[in-house]
Specification:
About 45% of the residues lie in helices and about 20% in strands. Strands 1, 2, 3, 4, 5, 6, 7, 9, 11 and 12 form a ten-stranded mixed sheet that branches. The longest helix has 23 residues, at about 270-290. The protein has helices spanning about 15-25, 45-60, 75-85, 105-115, 145-150, 155-160, 160-165, 170, 190-195, 210-220, 240-245, 245-265, 270-290; strands spanning about 5-15, 35-40, 65, 95, 100, 120-130, 135, 140, 175-180, 180, 185-190, 225-235. Strand 2, helix 2 (about 45-60) and strand 3 (about 65) form a beta-alpha-beta unit. The protein is an alpha/beta fold and about 300 residues long.
Length: about 300
Amino acid sequence: MDRRKRVSCVIVNYNDAGTTEKLVRRIYRYQSLDAVVMVDNCSADDSKDRLEALTWELGRERVILLSAEKNKGYGGGNNLGIIYSYKVLQADYVLIANPDVEFSDALVSQLAGMFAGHRQLGVAAPLMEDAKFGQQKNGWPLHGVWGSLARSGPVCRRVFRSLLEYPPSYFQGKQAAYVDVVHGSLLMVDLEKMMACGGYDEKVFLYQEEEILGYKMLAQGWRTALLLTGCYVHRHAQSISKSYQNVWQRQRLRNQSAMYYYKNYLGINRLEEWMVQLFFLAVRLEIWFCSRVLRWKW
């Protein structure tokens, strides 16, 4: 008889122990989870001490704290928890969660159940209910460099939405659907497949992890699925906004990560690289116009 599949939850914290603690207190008793692994990503505040105290309070076998020697970004922090879950906890699946999300015990069970009947499934995620924008079908196709660029511009992605997204008919009448990419704020991975594809690319500090992960899974012949019968709440990048309050700083990080993806995965040439830089300039102008003139919030 097959043993019960083990699920751990990995949460990366950086200078935001309050948000992380709130999530851990909510989920650590979930029957669907065997362990909660917090990774303090070399915080510059008292996060490590606060989260260490939390493990003693809630139980160190159930709630585990790992401390990164240096901040290697979102992917590097998650990789610490992923490798620990694989080698030490011997988990089968890892739920990767931002600190600023809310999800149910039943949703974790739903996600884990999706892998049982789909041997090629590497990643699964539910619908995202953004605290600001409402429920979204947070799965999209990979379109290569120009489609990815179009998605990055606040005006472009609205003008060309019908070309960049799956049509509504693609999801109609389904409980789940294969997609190329899902948002990284809450997703579950098959640990064997995640380890085989090298985990997150640690040369990307922040942003673009989702498309890189989707690309790597597809390159191995594995699929990503969006669960259409369950959702979670995302508090609109609450933790990231605390660490990077300046919209221009966040945009610079996005551009750096996108360029790395285009060069190292999509293999753009020097002419295309120059054109991408021009597009980045246009996006910065779009952001200035939308934030200053249209008063859009970021």
